[in-house]
Every structure is written in C-alpha cells, then in structure tokens.
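My hope is that you will study the record closing this message with an eye to the fold:
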Amino acid sequence: MQRVQPVRRAISVGLFLAAMGLSGLAQAQSGTPIRLLVGFPAGAGTDAIARTLGEKLKDVLGVPVVVENRAGAGGQIAATVLKSSPADGHTLFLSHDHTISILPQVVKNPGFNPATDFVPVAGFATFANVLAVSGGTPAKSIDEYVKWVRTQKGGKETIGIPAPASIPEFLVKMISDKYKIDVQPAPYRGSAPMTADMLGNQITAGIASVPDFIENHKAGKVRIVASIGAKRQAVIPNVPTFTELGFSNLEDLPYYGIFAPVGTPQPIIDKYGDALQKVLAMPDVKQKLTTMGLTVGYEPQGQFAGRVRTYTQTWERIIQASGFKPL
C-alpha cells in the first residue's frame, strides 16, 4: 500500500499540470485579444514586421492580435512588461537579438533575464547588420571609405549607430581596430533619425540592419558596402560580407523571434508556434518580409532556443574582448 501512494501522488500531480495547460489553452482560445509587444515605436521596422504577422496570426488563431508598442531603451521597456505579464498565453513579445542577447550583457540592471524570465516560442527570420555610406562621400566600398577618412578627415570620423551599447557600436570599434583609423560611434535614438542625418549628409556613414537601409540603398541615396554573415545577403548580392573583408566572428546572423513569459503552458507555446509556421508559409507574407531585407525561415522552439544561445555566446566573447564596461 505504501508503494501505491507515491504513484497516486505522481498521477495526481501530472493530471493537475495537464489540466493547468489545457485551462491556459482554453483561455487563449476564448477570444481574449493577444498582446504582441514590440519594443520600438510605431512605424519602425520591427513594428511593421509585427503588424504584418499579427494580422495573419489573427486569422489563423481566430482571436484578435493587438500590436502594443512599448518603445524605449532598445526594447528593455517591452521586455520588462513581458516579465511582469501573466503566463496565460495572452501576452507575447516579438523581438530581435538586441533585446534578448545583447542588452543584458551591456546594461548592469536590465530588469529581466531572458534565460529565466522568458521562453522562446519560435523564430521566423534572420537579417544582417550592415555598414552604409552616405552621399557625402564618394566611397563605393569599405576600402574606399577608409581611404577617404584618411585623406579627407585626417583619419578621424564618426559612424552613426541606432543605439549605444549595440552590435553596431562594437562593429565600429572592430572597423577602427582593423583599419587603424579613429572612427567613433555616434549614438542615435533609433535608426530613423540616424538615416535622416545620413540622407542630409550630416554624417557620412552608419551601421544598422538591412531593413533600415534597403529602400534608400536601392534608390542610390546611401550605399551599403559590407554586411555581417557567413554568406552574402540575397537582397544585396553585390555587397561583400565582413568575413570576406578579413573580419572574424561575424558569421552568426541576428535573429527575429517571438517569446512568452516563463511558465506559459506548453500546449499554448505549441499552438502559437504552429500558427506562426502557417503564416510564414503564406506567399504574400514571405514576399513582404523578404522585401524588408529579412531572410524568412521558421524555426521551432528547440531550434530557435539553440540559435539564441549560440548567438548570445558569440557576442559575449566579442563584448568581453572589447573591454566594454556595462552601463
């Protein structure tokens, strides 16, 4: 009889946990809107991506999906909102690598820990950070830009970045070290004002994502001259990678994915992952995201979690080697 009791208790616990998961799934299917948090303002690239996916997820899931912009601090505000949200399937966070992999390493007290506070739902795209030059310089390659800085600027110049303590800032340092020139990062509050200054020739170069530059690159208003990644980006096939140019550790691509509060029942995670996979298979969605400069590809929870870990570890080594002190 004593041997039966532990078995009964185990069965009871299992039934309770299963019931909790099914209850959460029922709530997620009840018609209550799903909040899709975005850490950047309306009109920004990440916002446009979220609205594209949210509209289609609404149709697949049969419940409203409301994009909620909690802009500020490189996604930190939205991340803290996710952390404090109930793990009932009603709140998700669409984020790229900066908030999840980089920000916790460069800020002393970010207010959240992705490894313990969040659970990956699925990944849906990668993209590349790139160096672009403005019309204020005749350079059409990174070598020509470096030569121009040396001859016209005395070896000193600034390169715009969308935010301090971001991957673009570390890329600026790597460019400075490799070419032995004194280029310093000029932080902006987002890629939009930085790009505006590039178009007005207030700054001669900037580093941001392909989606931030692609339309102006196609129009000839800025020129993308280098990108990260192990291979060239399909949308800019004539632009060499930093790896081709002799840089190392820049093969892993930044990612986009969806996250939920830790403790969200697995049936809900699975349901949202399946819904995202169906949305990404829609030709109009894939075309729109590809036009934005993303490489679209569904990654299920386990695969995406592995990507996040590997990418975080890669940039942990780069950040530590740079001597950067958390803000």
The radius of gyration is 22 Å. The CA atoms of residues 77 and 305 lie 22 Å apart.
